[in-house]
């Protein structure tokens, strides 16, 4: 733990939440909070303890940073738009994690990782909640001999989009395409127009207008479970908790259909609800990835390109979600 984890965007909501969790789990782990507002980054670092603050520049190959004692890992809790954070990690042979490149704009990151696959472990975690939905679904899938269908429906409260960077990411991803990616009868296909418009249920039964989206969760769930039918529906609107006068919550419904070991039909449905919104769960998804990449849980990860389900144990992720106050209904 002599080297520090560099968290780019560490003073933002996801980055700060990640730092808080890592500090709670590993008090001796040094952290570097890199922010574009140095005063804000310093406040976060002072609150954490055993942390330093600095400003950084994503447009520069060296990120505008001095080497110091080097870094143990690089976390992009903000969009690494020039991929300089990725290259920075590759050149130093340290793990890298990102969360802001959606399915429709992930190609440059994947190509950069593939070109130098032996340089460093790269965790592509631009899934919903940084991979937690996939991990929760995989944990439920343990009951099944065969999974035929996975359906996910998520409600993001319109007042819970995160900080400016997160809102910009969401707007960019929604603007790039109005089509959604689904797996249907084993084929990955695009659905657009009226076919992509859906109704998304909230946990209290209220139905919100939404759409089927293109998200990394779809191929991850399809390939991890073998399910020939997978979709992810998404709505932005008022969450059930806010309708009750409380703060915005995040809500995700996961439905699985298939067969049990004896061949009997089996179906499972669960809600994942966090009363404080998406930020705590996104931070948890990132922290679980960092923990695994550093070998703080399990062996250090070899160089290569990874997704969350390839590294993080689903049962352990679900335990951590419960510790954080996530409700499974």
From TrEMBL:
InterPro entries in the cross-refs: NAD(P)-bd_dom_sf
Protein name, as recorded: Saccharopine dehydrogenase
Organism: Nonomuraea longicatena
């Amino acid at each position: 733990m002599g080297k520090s984890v560099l968290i780019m965007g560490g003073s933002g909501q996801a980055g700060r939440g990640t730092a808080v969790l890592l500090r709670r789990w590993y008090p001796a782990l040094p952290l570097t909070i890199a922010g574009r507002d140095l005063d804000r980054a310093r406040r976060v670092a002072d609150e954490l303890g055993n942390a330093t603050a600095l400003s950084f520049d994503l447009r520069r190959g060296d990120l505008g940073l001095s080497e110091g004692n080097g870094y143990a890992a690089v976390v992009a809790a903000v969009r690494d738009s020039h991929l300089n954070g990725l290259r920075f990690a590759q050149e130093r042979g340290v793990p890298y994690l990102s969360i802001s490149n959606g399915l429709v704009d992930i190609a440059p990151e994947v190509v950069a990782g593939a070109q130098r696959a032996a340089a460093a472990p790269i965790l592509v975690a631009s899934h919903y909640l940084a991979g937690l939905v996939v991990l929760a679904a995989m944990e439920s899938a343990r009951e099944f001999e065969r999974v035929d269908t996975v359906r996910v429906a998520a409600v993001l409260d319109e007042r819970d989009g995160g900080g400016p960077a997160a809102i910009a990411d969401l707007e960019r991803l929604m603007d790039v395409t109005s089509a959604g990616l689904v797996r249907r009868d084993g084929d990955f296909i695009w659905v657009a127009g009226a076919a992509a418009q859906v109704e998304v249920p909230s946990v209290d039964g209220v139905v919100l207008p939404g759409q089927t989206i293109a998200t990394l969760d779809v191929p991850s769930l399809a390939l991890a479970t073998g399910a020939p039918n997978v979709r992810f529906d998404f709505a932005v609107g008022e969450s059930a908790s806010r309708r009750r006068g409380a703060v915005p919550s995040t809500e995700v419904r996961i439905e699985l259909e298939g067969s049990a070991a004896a061949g009997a039909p089996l179906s499972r449905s669960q809600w994942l609800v966090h009363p404080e919104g998406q930020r705590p769960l996104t931070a948890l998804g990132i922290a679980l990835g960092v923990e695994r990449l550093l070998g703080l849980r399990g062996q250090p990860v070899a160089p290569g390109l990874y997704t969350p389900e390839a590294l993080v144990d689903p049962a352990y992720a679900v335990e951590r979600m419960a510790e954080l106050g996530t409700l499974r209904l």
